[in-house]
Amino acid sequence: MSSLQRSSLLIPPSVLPPAELAPTAESARLPRRSPDTERVLNAHGHTNARQVLREIASRRDLLTQLATRDIRIRYKQAVMGFAWALLTPFLLVGAGTLLRLAVVTMSGAPLDRGDLGSVVLKSFPWAFFSGAVGFGVASITSNLPLVTKVYFPRAILPLGVVLASTFDLGIGAVALVLVMPFLGAQLSWALLWVPLLTILLLTLTAGFAVLLSCANLFFRDVKYITQVLLTFGVFFTPVLFDAPSFGVRAARILMLNPLAPIFEGLRLSVLRGHNLLEPLVQMTRTGPVTAWEPWYLVYGAAWAVFLLAGSLILFQRTQYLFAEYA
C-alpha cells in the first residue's frame, strides 16, 4: 500500500477540504490582512470627507482621551496652573497697547477704549490658533510608536491637539466675558454671530493643523517654517491693528488672509453691534474705508470648510506611507 493510500485511510473524507478551497502554493505565500489594514493600504480608493469624518466619529473616545492627555500633560505640576492659558493673550495685549500708544502719540489722537478692546478681543483667538497649529504640526512625529504599531485614523492626532487647545480658548472666553463690558462691548443681536465665527475659527485651525502635520512627516523642516510664520503672522493678521487702519487698498489685501474675516467679524459684532450681513464703511484719517462686506464671511467660511475637507482627504490617502517615512 502506498503512502498516499495510507494517508487517505487515516483522514476521514468529511475532513478533507474541497478542491476549490484547498490552499495553493501561491495563496499560502500571500500575507493575510485585516479589514483595517486593507483600508489603509488602499491608497487609490475613492475617499471623501464624509467617510473620513464618519471614521473619526467612530473613534471619538480615542479623540477625547488624547485631548485629555494633552491637557493633563500641559498643566501637570505647572506653577501658574490655568493662568498659562492667559499668558500669551496678555502678552499680545501688552504689545498691541504699546503699539497703539506709539501711534496715537505720533498722530496726536487720543487712545479710544474701543481700540484697546479690539486688541484684547482678538488676542485670545490668535493665541488659540497659533498654539493649536504650533503643537499640532508635530503631533504625528511625536507619536510615531503609536502610528507604526496600531491602526486608527491618524487625523485624530492633530485633531486631538486642536480639541485640547479649545480648553485654553474656553478659559480665555470666560476672561473676555468679564472684561469686555468695560472695553466697549455692546449687548445686541449681533452677538449671535460670535458662535458661528468661533466654529469657523475651530474649523480653519483644524484644517491647518491636519495639513501641516501631514506635511511635517514628509518634510521635517515644515515645523520650523510654521513656527516662523506664526511668529510674524500676527503682523499680517488684523490682531494688533484693525484692517481699515491700513487704507482702502491695503485693507482689501489684508482681508485676503483667511483669518482676517473671522477677527474683523468678531470686532464689529462685539464692539460695534454690526450685523455681518450688511456692509460697513468706516471713517479713518485717510477717508472712508470699507470695513466690512458680506462676502468676507463667505470667503472665510469657504476657506475653513474646503481646507479641512481637503486636508482630511489628503491625510487619509497618504497615511499608508506614514510608517515608511517614520
Question: How would you describe this structure in keywords?
Answer:
mainly alpha; 326 residues; two-stranded antiparallel ribbon
General description of the model:
It contains 15 helices and two strands. With 326 residues, the chain is mainly alpha-helical. It has one domain. A two-stranded antiparallel sheet has the order 1-2. α6 (84-107) crosses α7, α7 runs antiparallel to α9 and α10 packs antiparallel against α13.
Blueprint (SSEs and pairs):
Blueprint: H1 3-10, H2 25-29, H3 35-41, H4 49-58, H5 60-75, H6 84-107, H7 113-136, H8 144-149, H9 156-179, H10 193-218, H11 222-233, H12 248-254, H13 260-271, E1 280-284, E2 287-292, H14 294-318, H15 322-325
Helix pairs in contact: 4-14, 5-9, 6-7, 6-9, 7-9, 7-10, 7-13, 9-10, 10-13, 10-14, 13-14
What would the average pLDDT be, to the nearest integer?
82
Q: Decide which structural class fits the backbone.
A: mainly alpha
Q: Tell me the strand percentage band.
A: under 5%
The main sheet comes to: 2 strands, antiparallel
Weakly predicted, low-confidence segments: 1-44
Q: What strand order characterises the main sheet?
A: 1-2
- Based on CA atoms alone, the radius of gyration comes out at 27 Å
The number of helical runs is 15
**In whole angstroms, how far apart are the ends?**
59 Å
The topology string of helices and strands comes to: HHHHHHHHHHHHHEEHH
Instruction: Estimate nothing, just give the exact number of structural domains.
Output: 1
Gross morphology? globular
Instruction: Work out the helicity level.
Output: 55-70%
- The tally of strands reads 2
Determine the oligomeric state from the structure: single chain
